[in-house]
Amino acid sequence: MRYIFYVIISSVFLWTGCGDKDTHKQETEDSQAQVETKIQNTFRITDIDQRSTTISIKNAQVKIAKVTQDIVLVNIFSEWSAPSSGMIPYLDSLQKKYPKDLFVIGLVANSDMDNKQLRNFMKKNNASYFISNSHENDKLAGALVKFLNLDSNYPIPLTILFKNGKYSRHYIGATPIEMIRADIEQLKKKG
Fold first, then answer.
1. Same domain flag for 10 and 59
2. Rg (CA), the chain
3. Is 53 in the same domain as 66?
4. 86-139: per-residue pLDDT in tens?
5. pLDDT at 112
6. Residues in contact with 124: Cβ distance below 8 Å, sequence separation at least 6, in sequence order
7. Do residues 31 and 97 both lie within one domain?
């Protein structure tokens, strides 16, 4: 009786374990292509001085047009968030400390601020880096959140570091500037 039971169990494992590897490989490639298609987007963002750039997300790469620096820091924030506002002067100091290496992009998300209000907000918070108030911001933020595999109900501020278009790391919530600075220094050393 035990022998029959073992034969049946072994047969089940043998038959269910066998399959067409090419079919499985094709299914995997198809699902990866679907994920890439879902996050393959291009966004044009503009700051209050009407300077614009295009950000494309494709195949786990983020390409930012008109940016010459190797390291890009994207900060998604809202003006009503105290942790967001608290980080802004520090992000500005990073932009000033590493002008040849770092480009900081601020994305105002979940906000109805117009450019005049944003200009006042930037002045109040000592921000002189590129901050976009574009209607594309929320869509771009959503695409970056998908790129990071985060929940669509993500906390802010959300800060993301890229080097040469490749994801390096991200920070959720207010993050000590020393931590971000150390990560930038590590990225600079990688050449």
1. no
2. 23
3. yes
4. 999 999 999 999 999 999 999 999 998 999 999 999 999 999 999 999 999 999
5. 87
6. none
7. no
pLDDT band (50, 70, 90) for residue 191:
confident
Helices 21-39, 137-147: axis angle to 10 degrees equals 150
From the list 111, 122, 126, 109, the residue with the least C-alpha distance to 160 is 109
Strands (E), the chain: 41-46, 52-58, 61-64, 71-77, 102-108, 130-132, 158-163, 166-172
Q: Are residues 76 and 155 in the same domain?
A: yes
Give the domain CATH number at 153: 3.40.30.10
Torsion of CA 105, 109, 115, 119, to 10 degrees: -60
Q: Is the peptide bond prior to 157 cis by the omega test (within 30 degrees of 0)?
A: yes
Q: Are 49 and 127 in contact (CB under 8 A)?
A: no
Residues 144, 105, single domain; the answer is yes
Domain that holds residue 23: 2-36
CA 49, 110, 67, 123 dihedral sign is positive
Tokens at 69, concatenated: 């620096």
What is the tally of structural domains in the chain?
A: 2
- Judgement on whether residues 25 and 85 belong to the same structural domain of the protein: no
- Which pTM does this prediction carry? 0.78
